[in-house]
Amino acid sequence: MNTNKRKLLTGPYLVWAVGFIILPLLMILYYGLTNDSGSFTLDNLLAIADPIHAKALWESVLIALGSTLISLVIAYPLAYILSNMGGNKSGTIIMLFMLPMWINFLLRIMALQMILANTGILNAILGFFGIGPLHIMYSKTAILIGMVYEYLPFMILPIYNVMCKIDRNVIDAARDLGADTKTVFMHVIMPLSLPGVLSGIIMVFIPGISEFVIADILGGSKVLLIGNVIDQEFSLTNNWHLGSGLSIVLMIFIFISMAIMNKYDKSGEGQMIW
User: Fold this and answer.
1) How many domains does the chain have?
2) How many helices (H) and strands (E) are present in the chain, helices listed first?
3) Could you read off the pLDDT of 231-243 as tens digits, one per residue?
4) Same domain, 202 and 183
5) For the packed helices 226-235 and 240-264, what is the interaxial angle rounded to 10 degrees?
6) What's the CATH code of the domain at 251?
7) Using one digit for the tens of pLDDT, what is the confidence trace for 173-215?
8) The pLDDT of residue 161 is above 60
9) Are residues 96 and 5 in the same domain?
10) Contact 221, 268 (CB under 8 A)
């Protein structure tokens, strides 16, 4: 295929990238670094230090870190077990994790709302055993559960992908040299699976810190995250300058995380497989 044909094939993607990636980013940068009169200012970025915004950002960071940690604790042993299973069995289980992602995002969260509600399915089951009711809805716990439910596959898949690529000869060699199961796991498997862990952490933490839909549905108006603040600045107060400035702050988190991933996962081993 000659160069002209290749350029022609990349045309649709370039149009898409310019129209839906580059231009929106330029608009965010423009509004975030200017005021109503169009003059350059950093006030929109520095507004993150406002007590309300700082608290919302801190809440977002804590919940994102919590969901990331819980997802890692669940995903790592599961990915390890799946990587040691046969191809058909592990593929079936991975497919079960993927199936909910084929359903609309809002429908999944609304279904979770029905489960966690005070009169929902969970409390009905607990009530049958004489437990509860648990008041989970409209709390940080509900948001945390929703984020773990939504982003857990993004933690499992990259770790599973990396573990499947670990050379079994290296593990066998360590055992032949006298290493027990614990030593092999701590000094062979864990270091080699680190790229997948880092990739999974970024894939869960980044969308988690900017999440606002889950907070709206499961947290109600009781929990305000930085994503909700930005959404309100655009949709309610119509203050695009402040909303864009706060968005730029979140973009800085994304760039830092991408830099970390590129540093420790240069080979791209931690990328997800579908």
Assistant:
1) 2
2) 14, 0
3) 999 988 999 999 9
4) yes
5) 140
6) 1.10.3720.10
7) 888 888 888 888 888 889 899 888 988 998 898 889 888 899 9
8) yes
9) no
10) no
Q: How many residues does the chain have?
A: 274
4 and 51: one domain?
no
Q: What are phi and psi of 37, to 5 degrees?
A: -85, -5
The reply to whether 23 and 130 lie within a common domain is: no
Q: Which domain holds residue 177?
A: 43-273
Let me know whether 208 and 82 are in one domain. Answer: yes
Sign of the dihedral through C-alpha 273, 100, 154, 83:
negative
Bond prior to 133 in cis (omega within 30° of 0):
yes
Alpha-carbon Rg for the chain, nearest whole angstrom, is 22
Residue 116 and residue 6 in one domain: no
Q: Own/partner pairs for 56-62, CB < 8 Å, 24+ apart?
A: 56/224, 56/225, 56/226, 56/228, 56/229, 57/226, 57/249, 59/140, 59/223, 59/224, 59/225, 59/226, 60/208, 60/209, 60/210, 60/211, 60/225, 60/226, 60/227, 61/209
